[in-house]
Specification:
alpha/beta; five-stranded parallel β-sheet; SIP_fam; SIP_rossman_dom; NADPH-dependent ferric siderophore reductase
Length: 240
């Protein structure tokens, strides 16, 4: 389904802390069926039309965590990291009845495979969780996540035999995510799809391994720059 051109008006229905550093914002409104991703979408996303601290309009990208058309409700899980981030500040101050514009869905095409490897940091957990709930049950799934605490165990619905590895990364320590992906897939495999979302430099290391060592075709991987240290959204490319 193509992305809708204009933002849909939505209203905050509920706000819930689902982990020490993650807040779920549930939105309601008419026409949410326009946000329904195509079947098989991996980590579909949307655009929230928000305001910055000065009241200027800006857009931030978030994964669709869950879309319940029967209830007319959209769930977005937002990482909390202070007041300086537009999205984090929105989540910290969101209250029932607040209005927000929503545009989407965004989806990058993916080839169906018999096995999947998902990797990501805290910001990628909502996308991974959505995908785990929607993948066919006859595929093999490995998940590698790196978080500063036990958030992954709280937020990932691992009930279908996924092989889950959680890496603990205390603040100020180097990431081990790219190394873990290299160790999980040391040799080329033609039956695997690799999806990863992380900080841009870490994602670049994973992307290099997938392209150069594994030689996967473009439709067999999505390695996304979910954020970039010291940069706001719009100041970097999510795909390179």
């Amino acid at each position: 389904m193509p992305a809708i051109a204009e933002p849909l008006p939505a209203t905050v229905r509920a706000v819930q802390d689902i982990a020490p550093d993650m807040r779920r914002v549930s939105l309601g409104g008419a026409g949410l069926e326009a946000l329904l991703p195509a079947p098989g979408a991996l980590g579909p996303y949307l655009k929230l039309h928000l305001e910055d601290a000065e009241g200027y309009s800006c857009i931030r990208t978030y994964s669709i965590r869950r879309l319940d058309l029967e209830r007319g409700e959209l769930q977005v899980d937002i990482t909390l990291h202070g007041q300086d981030s537009v999205g984090s500040r929105f989540a910290l101050h969101a209250r029932e009845g607040d209005n927000v514009g929503v545009r989407g869905p965004g989806v990058i095409p993916a080839a169906p495979c018999v096995s999947y490897l998902f990797a990501g940091d805290l910001t990628a957990l909502p996308a991974i969780a959505y995908t785990l709930e929607t993948l066919p049950h006859d595929v093999e799934v490995d998940v590698i996540v790196e978080t500063p605490n036990h958030t992954a165990q709280c937020l990932l619905p691992c009930t279908r035999g996924e092989r889950l590895r959680c890496l603990h990364r205390p603040a100020g320590t180097p990431s081990r995510l790219a190394e873990a992906v290299r160790n999980a897939l040391p040799q080329p495999r033609g039956d695997v799809f690799v999806w990863a979302g992380a900080e841009a430099a870490i994602a670049r290391g994973i992307r290099k391994h997938v392209r150069t060592t594994l030689g996967l075709p473009a439709l067999n991987y999505q390695i996304l720059n979910y954020w970039k240290a010291g940069r706001a959204e719009g100041d970097f490319d999510c795909l390179t």
